[in-house]
Design goal:
Order of helices and strands: EEHHHEHEEHEE
Strand order of the largest sheet: 4-3-7-5-6
Mean pLDDT: 78
Number of helices: 5
Distance between the termini: 123 Å
Low-confidence stretches: 75-84, 205-217
Largest sheet: 5 strands, mixed
Strand content: 5-15%
Radius of gyration: 38 Å
Structural class: alpha/beta
Number of strands: 7
Helix content: 25-40%
Shape: rod-shaped
């Protein structure tokens, strides 16, 4: 008599669970909408995705700010130029006929540089270049010189009330006058204060962008000013 085939799904009276049944059970559990494991995975994936999107957006914003000059990266050159912006020395009033100055117009008023240059010349200043330039500075005027020109810049500034002094890297004693949007007129000759004093330096609330634009070196545009 033939023996009945042994049932491999039963071992010692207990049913053996197959691998396919185990996989099917876990897949069904994982696919369940209220499965807590699946919920945690979805939350984790969402958090990671939000963080990645935020990092990418932040990187784009920082890159654009650097390109537009709103963020300035520190450099060796910047550190070397980080001298005090405003000299603390007291200056005497220098005779105008010993001062060489250039006059630039950064406003949209045609002929302004030439008319102001003529006024300075009438006061015996030695006028050199006259023309147009560009400046993001907002105020009456900028008086720009190197360290050697600070005494002369003080005298020029006394003739241009409300102006602000900036120092650049030039080594000669020449002075640049950059006329900006709020300029109206020079001080009347008889009212110019000729007593010793200090230079008036830039005020932070007068800048459009930031103080990292210092020094401003004007570039003349060929024009009648």
């Amino acid at each position: 008599m033939a023996r009945k085939p042994k049932d491999v799904t039963v071992l010692h009276g207990h049913r053996v669970v197959t691998g396919s049944e185990i996989r099917a059970t876990f897949v069904e559990q994982d696919d369940a909408p209220d499965n807590p494991v699946r919920k945690r995975r979805r939350i984790l994936h969402g958090v990671v995705l939000v963080l990645l999107v935020g990092l990418i957006a932040a990187a784009i914003i920082v890159a654009l700010a650097i390109m537009n000059g709103q963020i300035k990266l520190p450099t060796t050159e910047r550190s070397r130029a980080a001298a005090p912006l405003c000299p603390d020395a007291t200056y005497d009033y220098t005779p105008p006929d010993k001062i060489n100055l250039n006059v630039f117009n950064s406003t949209n008023r045609p002929g302004l540089a030439q008319s102001v240059a003529d006024e300075f010349a009438a006061r015996h200043f030695i006028v050199g270049a006259v023309g147009n330039t560009t400046s993001s500075y907002r105020g009456v005027a900028l008086i720009v010189s190197g360290a050697a020109g600070q005494p002369a810049a003080f005298t020029v500034q006394r003739n241009l009330a409300g102006s602000d002094y900036l120092q650049d890297a030039r080594t000669d004693p020449s002075v640049d006058v950059i006329l900006t949007g709020d300029y109206k007129e020079l001080a009347r000759p008889e009212l110019v204060d000729q007593t010793p004093g200090k230079l008036s330096c830039p005020r932070g609330d007068r800048r459009i962008v930031d103080d990292s634009a210092v020094p401003i070196v004007p570039t003349a545009v060929p024009s009648g000013g």
